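Could you show me just one protein sequence together with its fold in token form as a worked example?
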Amino acid sequence: MIGTLPTELVQQILVFCQPKDVAAFSQTCRQSRALIYESEDQFLWRELSLAVPFDDLTDSPDQDMKSSGDWKTELQARIRAEMLVTLSYEDMRTRDHDSISNAFDTLTRVLNSTPSDEPKNLRWLASTATRSFVFNDYDRFPRFLSNTQPLHQLLALSWDLWGLSMSNNGLGERILDDARYFVYNLSKYSAKSNWGAFCWTSSEGGTPIFAANWEHIKHCVAILLLHGEDVELPPYGLRNAVAYSAPDSHSRASDDWAGVEGVWLRDVCFLDYTTLFDLNSTADEYGNLSPYAGEFLEGFTRFQVVMKIVRDPKPEERFVISPPPLNADKRYPRLNVIGLGMSELSLGQEGETVLRGHVDRLVDGSILWTNLSAPNLGNWLYVVTSPTTIAILKRGKHP
């Protein structure tokens, strides 16, 4: 019967079906399977994706996804990820680590590929994440996924889906304590971690590459957002983690691929040094800290900085702090940047340079900021974000 109908007509009928129903149809006969999986035509897969609804791949800020146009592979990966991420704790433990890690990687890839104008991907992301026990049961966080960076990245960028609700349900202090014991543990900072929230991972060829440590960043986010009720929180959550969702991003200069130029909030939360040393004096041989009996004496401060790209640096200006990482994405040229103090600018003055450095993009999509900080521009300040975290700190263009 199917063989007597034009292919275009069958596809038009299947467009009204759910992806799982289309998969069931493909198992009815060889002709059906060939129509669904062996055709090079992407029409059916595109229509099924848009009906979920997902955003159009051609609107994606991810250039690789935008240029591929592979609707079939992407939709299959998302459906597979949804099935794995929403498994129960017991069922997830029976699956191999790579499959689960790839599922969370798919979710973060969907977030990173979401356009800022009326995004549709976020509805599916929120629905999938909130049906996962990982986002709802803090006590049953799967230890076998503790080193899964895509999961930590998703948690770092989706505080509104898990951290906010858990803190409102009385778990805020536990989340904050866990974050403190991680971030203020001095054993986490070494040459191996490049003295920051970084790690070394292996590429497909086995070569070690530099990458963000999203578990570390997740705990930094928790400390910032749970610091206190008197602190005005920066924008957070999935909607503010969409690439180029920061103010004035669409009017940025053509060479400003990272959305650097504009007014930024630099939030700093730090621990009193006596508390820091007392806490770390409890470390065992593996670097684990014992419960701290004293009070965590933390400070919080916020700076406004006007970031600018220096397109024609003078010879005496120092920008090159370190060579580009081996896994730098060469499609995005390094940006030389300076940060000007906001207080001076608000008085109509030139503004003192408080930051100087450069910005690189890594092949995994992370953006690496390497800056020297004032007053003597002799202290290194590292900041790692993904393209999706610009909106957390960027306030907008300076008038």
Observations:
- The two ends are 67 Å apart (CA to CA).
